[in-house]
Structures are given as C-alpha cells and as structure tokens.
Amino acid sequence: MSKVSMTVNGKTVEREVEDRMLLVEFLREELNLTGTHVGCDTSQCGACVVHVDGKAVKSCTQLAVQASGCEVVTIEGLATGGDLHPMQAAFKENHGLQCGFCTPGMIMTAVDLVNRVGAGNLDEKTIRENLEGNICRCTGYHNIVRSIEAGAKAMA
Amino acid sequence: MGVEGIGARVLRKEDKRFITGKGRYTDDFKMAGMHYAAFVRSPHAHAKIRGIDKSAAEAMPGVVGVLDGKQLTGDGIGNLICGWMIHSKDGSPMNMGAWSAIATEHVRYVGDAAAVVVADTLENARAAAEAVVIDYEELPHVIRAVDALKDGAPQLHPEAKGNLIYDWEIGEKDATEQAIAGAAHVTEMEIVNNRLSPNPMEPRAALANYDEADDHFTLYTTSQNPHVARLVLSAFYQVAPEHKLRVIAPDVGGGFGSKIYIYPEEIVCLWASKRLGVPVKWTSDRTEAFLTDAHGRDHVSKARIGFDKDGKIVGFSIDTIANIGAYMSLFSSSVPTYLYATLLSGQYNIANIHCNVRTVYTNTAPVDAYRGAGRPEATYLVERIMETAAREMGMDPAELRRRNFVSEFPHQTPVIMCYDAGDYNATLDAALKAADYANIGKRKEEAKARGKLRGIGLSCYIEACGIAPSAAVGSLGAGVGLWESGEIRVNPVGTVEILTGSHSHGQGHETTFAQLVNERFGLPVDNVQVIHGDTDKVQFGMGTYGSRSGAVGMSALVKALDKVEAKAKKIAAHLMEADEGDIVIEDGEVKVAGTDRKLGWHEVCLAAYTGHNLPQGMEPGLKETAFYDPTNFTFPAGTYVCEVEVDPETGKTEVIQFVAADDFGVIVNPMIVEGQVHGGITQGIGQALLENVIYDDNGQLLTASYMDYAMPRADDVPSYKLSTHETVCPGNPMGMKGCGEAGAIGSPPALINAITDAIGNNNLTMPATPARVWALINGK
Ligand code: FES
Ligand code: FES
What is the per-residue pLDDT across B597-638, written as a single tens digit (0 to 9) for each? Predict the structure, then answer.
C-alpha cells in the first residue's frame, strides 16, 4: 500500500491505495468519478482519457501512485461554474455522441488536441489522425470530427 | 413542423449527462456489501470436465464462494434457451443441444464458463479464479462450419447429429433451377460473410442483489430489452419469479444486437447473490467481451443467378452454411433463416428464388444477431453478385439494377416479404448524382497517372425492420410477440412522462419520443420526460433491436397519445361548453376552433386530476396506455456508392468518398437519423476493410483485443455524403421505416464492389486487408 495525494478537479485528495491500483480505478472506485470509463484492457480505446498536469493520459495506463503529486482533471471537472466547456457544448451541438460511453475520453482528448496543436491548425485530416487512440463504435466519427472542429473554433 | 416537432433537428436532451461524465452505466452502480464475480473460463475449444479442485481458491483472501455448474443445475437453474423454433425442410424441429450457464460436463469453446469465484474485491476474485484447478480431458474440436458438416467431424452435442441444427429452405427449388437452366447468362459466386465481434464500447456488466427481507431480486444489466430479460430469467431459467425480479438497464453504452441476449453471467450473478447472500457484480473486460459476446455473420454461400438476354433476372439460387458457434444463443436460429433469406430478392423483381440453409455447431463463441442480423448477409450476396454479373455481361452495374427494380407496390416476393412502398430509382439517381458517377472514368485516369487504382462500387440495399405482426412471427416459430407498449402519463401540471418498452442505448429516444408530444400538443420537449429501461416503472415492452423503436415503439406512443388527446378534448369541451369536435390542441393551448375561447393545456390537465368538474361518468386522471402490434415489416431501402483508391504497391485501400441515399420513410429527427447512418456505414466499412474474428486451428481466439481485432478508427473512414428520399410507410401511423441498421447493411458490398472494380478482380473476400488486395493484384 502507498499513500497518494493529488489534486483532482481542483480538490486535494489523499488515499492509501494498493501499489497496483490504476489511476482509472482510483478515480472510479475511490473517488466515485465514474465519468471516466474503461473500454479495453490494452490501452487502445481511449474511453479512460483524463488530463494529468495538463496532458491527455490514458488513465488505464498509469498507476495511481504515478499520479501522486499531480494535477488531474477528469470529464467531471471540465465545466467551470455550471458553464459547459466549449468542447462539451460542441459535442452536444454537433451530435458528436450517441451512447456516450466513449464521449468523456473523446472530449478530454479533443481539448488536449486543441491545446497541443492550436485551434487554427486543425484540419479534418489532423483531427482524424489524432483520434487514432480513441475508438467510438456509434458515431462513425463523422460528427465527432464536426464537434472538434466547432469546439476548436469556440476555444480559440 | 414546429421547432421541436416531427422533422426538426432537436438537440438531444440526454447529452448533458454524457458530456459532463454523469451518465450512469451498469458498472457505475455500487451497493453496500457488494462482491465481485470472476469466471473461470475454458482454455480449450472442446473438453470434458473430469473434476474441479476448488480448495486452493476457497482458501484465498476475501473469497465467499467458488461455484460450479453442478451446483447451478442442482439449484434448479434452467438451461439457456433459443427463442425461435426453426423446422428443417423435412419437417423436423431444430436439433438444439443443452447450454448451461456454467458448464456441467463439457466445455465447448474457448471462454465457456466452467466455474465462478465471488470475492470481496475484483482483484481477490480474479486471483482466486486463477487458483481453481480444473481437470480437463481434451476432446477433438471443429472450428469452421464447412468442416463441422464433414463425415467424421468431432461431435459437439448428442442432440445434433453431424453438428447439423437444421437444414432449412425457402422458395421453389425446381422452378428456380429450371429458370437458371434456361438463362442467357449465369453468374456464379462463392461468397463468405466474415465473422465479426459487435464491440459496443461499454462491455457487458451485471449487478445482482437478492434482498432476503423482501424475497426480491434486483438486476442492473447492460440490456437492450430488460423486460424480455426478466421474462426469460424467470420463466425459463427459474432464477426468480417475474414479480420478484426487477431488471434495470440504465444508460447502456451501445448494443448493436449483442446486448439483446440473456447471457450466462447475468443468470450466475443473480443465482450467486441469493446463494451467497451478497450483491454480486460482474463487469466484462474487453478480452472476455471478444470471447463471450455473441459474434455476428459467419456465412459461407454458393450463389447462382440467371439473366435473360435483356438482363432481367430469371432465377436466383443460394446455398448457405451458417456457423452458429457452440451453443444456440437467444435469437440465433432466426438470423440465418427468416431475417436473411427473406431479403434475397433485394430491390429486384425476381420470379424464382430458392435458398437452402444449413446451420451448424462449431467450437466457437455463439453467433447471433449483430447490427442488421441476416440482412447484411443477404444484401452482401445480392449486391456482390449483381455487380459481378453486370461486369461479366459488359453492362453498367447501375443500369442492370435499374432494369430489375421493383417499381409497383405492394410487391410480393417469392420469399415471404411483401414490399409496401419504395422508390428505388429515386435513391439510385440521388446517389449516382451525389457521387458524380458519370465522371468516374476521368477520375480513374487521373489516379492511374499517379500510379493508383481507382474504383467505384454500388449497393442497392433493402432491409426489413419493425419486425413484425406478432401472429406472423409466431407462425414462423418466434417464441415472443413483437409488439411494443407505451404509456403517456400527463401530470396535473401538464408536464408529460412517456413510459416506453423501447430502450435507448445511444439512439436518442429521450429526445425523439418527446418530439412526438411536442408535435401533438405543442409542449416544449423539456416538459416531457422519457422513462425506459426499468421493469418496475414500465409495465412491459420488447426492447430495442431491428430498428423497431420508431416504427413500432413510437407507433404505440401515437396510439396512447390518441387516447390522451381524445380525453383531454372531452374535458375541455365540457369546461368550455363547446362541441368536442371543435376543440383543437396546439402550442400548449386547448382552443375552441373559430372562437377566442381557450384554456391552457395545464388547466385541462389539472381539471382532469381535481375531478371537480368532469363530464358525467368520466374517470379522473389523464394517463393512457397502448400496445401496438405492427401490420407488416417496414422496408427501408436505398443506394450506397463507394469510391476507393488502391495503392498497387501496398494493396492498401483508401475510401475516397462514400455516398448514401436512403429512404427511411418519415423522419422524426434528421440529425439523429444521420448519426445512425454514419455509425452504420462505419461498421460496414469495418467489416469490409478491417474486422475479422479469427480462431486458429486449435480454437484459440487470435483476435481477442483491440491490438488484434481491427476496429475502424477515425482515420480509416471519410466524412460521408448523405441524403434521404421519403416514401411514406403505409404500415404504421407514423409512416416510418427505421434507420438503425441500414448503414451496416448497405455499405460492405459497395466498398468491396469498389475495390474489385479498382483492381479488376471480383474474387475478393472480406475484410479487404492490404495483404489480400495486394495478392489479388499480383496474382498470388
Ligand atoms: S480503457 Fe484505457 S485505453 Fe481503453
Ligand atoms: S458514442 Fe457510443 S461509443 Fe462513441
């Protein structure tokens, strides 16, 4: 067991956890932040993407202890003061989700993508290539791409 | 159409919770004292269980139970059922082998459950599952359906001699053979429909609790049809009586058919919860999902089609072998028969069709309905052979189709279906235009100059949704009726609750169903709440699959709304001392036509509940239920055009454009319909280009993770060009046909036809991996 301490969605949390506990389990089971999902066991699907120190991370690929001391933002922490993040709003406005299971990971990835590449540099090809690590079975990606285009504009 | 009525692109009411991480999926629920189940699964394709040594596992930390199949059957838990009886052509009933939720004596595929461990944490459960020692005696196995039919093949079930479940046929064999014998041109093909894994992104899960005080069970589960689950769990598996079992399917992360069935894990969690006295949760990991979720497709067919000298089809003969896996899943028998062969007439006027289907057991995971269920297999066959025949006859593939289109309705095919409405030329024309089909020659030349091979392919699909009059499916062997129920509950303040037996797992019912109420009464969709997925709240329903929630589910709501409207008008007429026939309800107001007399909708609703001043003899309240049984299938149809560019150096295919022109009848929310088509096409492109379930010769599943099973990703597919053409479906009050599966049904042949056009070789099998395409280009 190890002690972990991190900031999650702006709040400091401290827990005693098993060394083998994954960050995603920590978020889901310890903190009840069930918006972060698990869709695979090989770090392929991206349903579990959160931000750790401002970077998109597959939380099924990191141990909770590795995130100790870090600043973690999950889908639950993206909206500020009741206002949706522009990327969240864009997913709704462009029907970028159906069952919603991939959606938290998609949105967290999309926000990171805009931060990394810059809203102005996001053509369709770049968006599609950067979604390589996020699988959606419902939308066929068409409206996810539209959502990210719109979300990027709104973030600019 | 109002801004929120039928035909409006209303943004989804349900999105808020999903985009903020507040969706509630089965695995998100927790219960006090909850324990976790881990299954011990067979590593062998076929084996006899000689013995199980549980002692080490039982001694491990946190373990409260290690249970096996003998204990399960000893407690009276019944075998899994198949809900559709098929008779062979000799009249004998299908040969169904036994399937116990936990194997008792034999395991028959890799992943078959052999024992279950329940422990206080998931880690403890999994560790203990590793410690269960099962003494297996390996038996000979068979993986491919064609091999399972051979003399001397290993036998899976004593009930099914030669592994044959049924040998079924439809249509007139002699007439079809005669017609083909007299044809001016005959095209023959052997066509394989590859095996797929449905892969909803949310893995299956179950959380079961037996409450001893109330002698009552609750099951949270990833189901497309919680009421059917409850019925089957109680009536057939005897897990709990129906009135003592509540099944809740909360937010469900996609289904695509794979969450229709009642799987062993749900049964086991319920049973274990009572036996061990703790709530039991099981959540599939992705590998388990690949191993145990019902797979789809897996057909091998030989087809022959004959044409007269004018290119008119004279006869079509098909011989299919369908792999059903190791056990018969809930609707597995219907998929390669009534959901498949009844669509083999395609959009065409064909006088003679005969199809023979042999369905066989193999040592693989059960195969059942996956998005489209039988119709993709039929469409792939018809549209591949039409395209190939056109090329052989030197005709434009579009023209050959046009010559054979059904153009008068109703049209009775020789394979049961009676098409009620359509305009196949309209969708073909729209798709060809949008794809600039006329100028493909130029684009091919331009590509050639760059060393690339361009090709274009068509697919004119038809499918059947909204299955179907209960009496009709009953006569064909279905064990259930396929109606739907709906309840409209108007509250005293005028807000509305819709209770529906349909289930949304991505389809957006919370929005589209509310649009019906808006259309009828002019209430904002925000004043309408859609309730589904809980057997304690909704009386009964058949769930969502087969693109039935619009055509059948909404039709039930329309009937309930009719009753609500009639009663509200009576009350209003009484209150305003007007004639009932003069009352109109619009924009949230109840008016006397041609006067300025009116009441607010909420005033009429309140009057219904105060009961102070109601017409003589009227019961108070404003709540109505309706059951709707469809009068026919509905027949969505359309044309898909795919254009590809193949790199001859690598064999890699790029989808340049994909055009869809669909006729779904009346559309409630175009935004949602487009989303369904996008998703469906992408799954179809996945099947045609990427996806393939592969078992090796030992029956080990080689494609059990996303590292090995190629899911379509964002950069594998283009943006799509969609259009719709509407012919109103005469069979239901909404005029709707359904849109959930069309994309997956229509797209694979368009894509394969495009690649075969590009490379000049019709002999391509799905998925068209670079290796396969390269081999064909290079004559390997
Ligand atoms: S759960 Fe993390 S990538 Fe799939
Ligand atoms: S919306 Fe269902 S997986 Fe993406």
Answer: 999 999 999 999 999 999 999 999 999 998 888 888 899 999
Residue recorded with tokens 């929630």: B549
Task: Tell if the CB–CB gap between A138 and B201 is shorter than 8 Å.
Answer: yes
**CB-based contact (8 Å) between A58 and chain B?**
no
Q: Count of CB contacts below 8 A, A vs B?
A: 180
pLDDT at B764 over 80: yes
A46 lines ligand 1 (CB under 6 A): yes
Confidence of residue B504 (pLDDT cuts 50, 70, 90): confident
How close A33 gets to chain B, by Cα (Å)?
8
Single residue among B628, B644, B670 that ends a domain in this structure: B628
Q: Domain check: are B223 and B287 in the same one?
A: yes
DSSP letter at B263? -
Q: In angstroms, rounded to a whole number, what is the distance separating the alpha carbons of residues B161 and B96? A: 10
Same domain for B265 and B384?
no
Give the DSSP letter of residue A75.
G
Which segments of B190-245 does DSSP mark as H helices, in order?
A: 226-235
Cα Rg for chain A, rounded, in angstroms? 15
Integer angstrom CA distances of residue B548 from B332, B536, B680? 18, 22, 15
Residue type, B496: V
**Interface contact flag, A35 B674, Cβ < 8 Å:** no
Q: Which residue of A has its CA nearest to B197?
A: A137
Tell me chain B's radius of gyration from C-alpha atoms. 27
The ligand with the least distance to the CA atom of B252 is 2
* Domain final residue, candidates B598, B628, B658: B628
The residue of chain A with its CA nearest to that of B16 is: A92
Omega prior to A86 cis, within 30 of 0: no
* Tally of domains within chain B: 4
Residue B120 and residue B245 in one domain = yes
The predicted pLDDT at position B579 comes to: 95
**Does residue A139 line the site of ligand 2, with CB under 6 A?**
yes
> Which residues have CB under 8 Å from B566's CB, separation 6+?
none
Does the reported pTM lie above 0.95? Answer: yes
Q: Which residues of B713-723 are buried (b: 16+ CB within 10 A; e: fewer)?
A: bbbbbbbbebe
Q: Taking CB atoms and an 8 Å cutoff, what residues of chain A touch B678?
A: 139-143
> Do B648 and B737 fall into the same domain?
yes
In a domain, B469, yes or no: no
Clarify whether residues B213 and B360 are in a common domain.
no
Query: Which among B17, B20, B26 is the top mutation candidate for probing chain A, defined by the most A β-carbons within 10 Å of its own β-carbon?
Result: B20
What mean pLDDT is predicted for residues B105-127? 98
- B547 pLDDT exceeds 80? no
Rounded distance, CA B112 to CA A140, Å? Answer: 32
Which residues does chain B have within 8 Å of residue A107's beta carbon, measured at their own beta carbons? Answer: 19
CATH code where residue B591 lies: 3.30.365.10
The domains located in chain A, with CATH, are: 2-76 (3.10.20.30), 86-155 (1.10.150.120)
The packing angle between helices B264-276 and B226-235, to 10°, is 60
Residues B558, B646 within the same domain: no
- B604 falls within a domain: yes
Q: Residue B662: enclosing H or E segment and its boundaries?
A: strand B652-663
Q: How far is CA B85 from the centre of its chain?
A: 19
A58 ligand 1 Cβ < 6 A: yes
We report the CATH number of the domain holding residue B233 as 3.90.1170.50
Say if residue B449 is in the same domain as residue B362: no
Residue B598 lies in domain: 15-21+483-628
Chain B contact probe: residue of A27, A30, A138, A144 with most B CBs at under 10 A: A138
Strand pairing partners for B637?
B462, B663
What tokens does B401 get? 């189709």
Interface check for A138 against chain B (CB to CB < 8 A): the answer is yes
If you search the block for the tokens 């394979």, which residue do you land on? Answer: B415
Nearest to B21 among A20, A76, A132 (CB): A76
Give the residue whose CA is nearest to atom 3 of ligand 2: A136
